[in-house]
Amino acid sequence: MKSDIPARTFEFAKRVVRLCQVLDEKPGVGRTLGKQLIRSGTSVGANVEEGQASQSQADFVSKYSIACKEARETLYWLRLLAETELVAPDRLQPLLQECHELIAILTTIIKKIRSKSE
Q: CB 3.0-4.6 Å disulfide test: which of 5, 26, 55, 91 passes with 30?
């Protein structure tokens, strides 16, 4: 599971980038929310990637914990975009589902590593 999470979070980031490109074309609130979303949505994979090169288990857990927090923030922005209908909720559903899954996977990895070190 650990080995495919970098690829999966990279693919997730690409999808977020594409969504933010659409949001950036619209003036106003959509563009502002898109800026928040691009930061958190791409940070998930960046922190996972950093975790792959961690120097210790504690460093690994730290990077993956940050990735999980960023995924939760991303979920917030995606939900806000859907609930306010700035983007059609049905269009966001696959991305929301993937975000939920990434949070669950990251949480599981973190818990397993922590339990091994106790």
A: 26
Q: What is the pLDDT of residues 48-100, one digit of tens each?
A: 999 999 999 999 999 999 999 999 999 999 999 999 999 999 999 999 999 99
User: How far apart (Å, rounded) are the C-alpha atoms in residues 106 and 2?
Assistant: 9
Domains parsed from the chain with CATH numbers: 2-117 (1.20.1440.60)
CA distances from 105 to 34, 60, 79, 81, 98 (A): 25, 15, 19, 24, 10
- CA separation (Å) from 14 to 18, 35, 116? 6, 15, 33
User: Is pTM beyond 0.90 here?
Assistant: yes
Tokens matching residue 31? 């563009």
d(CA 29, CA 49): 31
